[in-house]
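Hi team, as promised in this morning's meeting, here are the two structures we talked about. I've kept the exact order from the run log so nobody has to guess. The first one is mostly here for context; it's the second one we should focus on when we meet again. Sequence first, then the predicted structure tokens.
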Amino acid sequence: MVPSEDAAPQLDVDQILADPGVRIIVCCGAGGVGKTTTAAALALRAAEQHGRRTVVLTIDPARRLAQSLGLTELDNTPRQVKGIDVETSGGELHAMMLDMKRTFDDVVLQHTDPAKAAEIFANPFYQAMSSTFAGTQEYMAMEKLGQLHARGEWDLIVVDTPPSRSALDFLDAPARLSRFLDGRMLRLLLAPARSGGRSMFSLVTASFGMFSKVVQKVLGAQLLTDLSGFVAALDSMFGGFRQRAEQTYRILQARETAFVLVAAPEPDAVREAAYFAGRLREEKMPLAGLVLNRVHRPAVPELDAEQSRVAAERLAELGGHEATAEVLRAHAALARQAVREQQVAARFTEAFPAVPSVSVTAQPADVHDVDGLRTIGAAISRP
């Protein structure tokens, strides 16, 4: 029996976009499922149809968001999107892309004096960490979201996250930071700075000598020197890092936030969506619903695949009806695909029957402009 698309409650996206109590929408899901397009379409619809001053933040370094909004580039500063239809609604749309290093630099400048900031910027370990270290991007995304929220300039912030396992890192950033700050190695590295600024290598006491020698052997003397200097320079900022991260985490748990899962009717994508939904439930974070992209629907749903196949074979036997037979074969293939997609989507619905969902029909071409985003937004927001 074919699972029904209507088994899950219908997701009312317009109700979410119009709700002044919802100030953050986080779009998350596997790679390649249309998440960036969905985030941009939601932000555009919020501005045009609901009059909200909206900013969409992408953490994905791909340029698709800028291209679809008609912008030549995106950077760490919100840029207003021109040429959209907001005369009636009075809304605004802005877009930006997370610049990990720029955000880290801004945090340092905001929370230290110029001399200390210059010392931090010159440290080789900081230069590497702020640009390439795993986990820094997710933590800086939390910082940027917290900054945008604190400014109070936006009615709605739409966040386009990396593929879902990275998005889970996005959620884990505060906890990982706390573990780092409370770690034994960090406390030992901070000990010299807190005891008068002596070098790490001067700690040859019974308590620290062996530790210093082992770490120096593993990491190398120069890297350990850079790391020790980096930790000492940032010591006064660590409390602020932790406090802001935990505050943003609480915002993500609040009613003003709505998580929207984005998936395609493919096993891996639906599995990722279910994994993320389970995690959100564990963390008591508000899951608004699932957007199932790129769904295929036959033009004549009452004609199933087997009926279509049999009719095509009969016409082929009669002869002279090849074009009609080809149409029937194509319909049969599409009907079979639709059944497979419904069965795959049902895996999520069976696991999370109370989570609302909406299906978006596969588009004939990739979305690459504002008109395409409007079409997607209307499809997501259908009653």
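And here is the second protein, the one for discussion:
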Amino acid sequence: MTSPASRVLVIGECVADVVRADGVPDRVHPGGSPANVAYGLARLGRPATLLTELGPDANGRLIRAHLESAGVRVRAAEVARTPSAVVRLDGQGRARYTFDIGWTLPSAEPVRTDLAQPPAAIHLGSIGAVTEPGAATVLALVERWRGRTQISYDPNVRPALMGDRAEAVRRVERCVALSDLVKASDEDLAWLYPGERPEAVAERWLALGPAVVAVTLGADGAFARTAEGVRAEAAAVPVPVADTVGAGDSFMAAFLHTRAGGADLRACLTHAVTAAALTVSRPGANPPSAAELAAALAAGPAAEVDAV
């Protein structure tokens, strides 16, 4: 049996994604950025526990079954109904979201027995890390274990839920400062810091404390920077796009999984962009298994790296 200390504890929301596109029936997919990361980690063979909220409804049952099918240990506080989002796809498969979601997480009781000792790592992100009142519980757990386990964070910005921009930046930067590894998209950074170059934001975030900052650039690939001055870039892997739902979460899961295995920045980016490509090639947040990712990587490296 896997010990609690070998697991990644992922904290954050589950969301039922109602995917809507012209001319086709609505499709409901299990989603939510942290839930997708937990699922992606489990699919790659990394044991994961998800601390979240779920309702006693059909969407809640769908999401729980989905997560548990990959081996995720779900620890959920019960809420009146499972959060949902209408995901509208444009002609290129790019997603825009309209949310019906709250985040309360009154205590860590659903996962208390898993925290008798520090987990192998903690990942937090998106709505659950910055939306009160639940964010207070999330940050209390992170601060409890900071310095004794690796902390990762993905802001996965949802402008409709972020409120005042200046306050959102303050909350995001607090999470950045608590983390060892941070990943964001260029779209996240464009909303948080209009007009600033992603590279400049990454350097400023490194100064707040993380050891690694990675930024995804959509069709232009991704880059990562470390506090020691290592820089890496990765080209995107060209694939036919079904939709972009969950691509960043697959990137995050693969990056974390590969980094935990001791790989260098080159390998982390190569695995991450390849996992993201596999996800966009099929509908919904459907990250690759370890076998699928290994087969795709057989095409060769996608990254270039230099140290300064």
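Starting points for discussion:
Residues 251 and 272 are 4 Å apart (CA to CA).
The longest strand covers residues 48-54.
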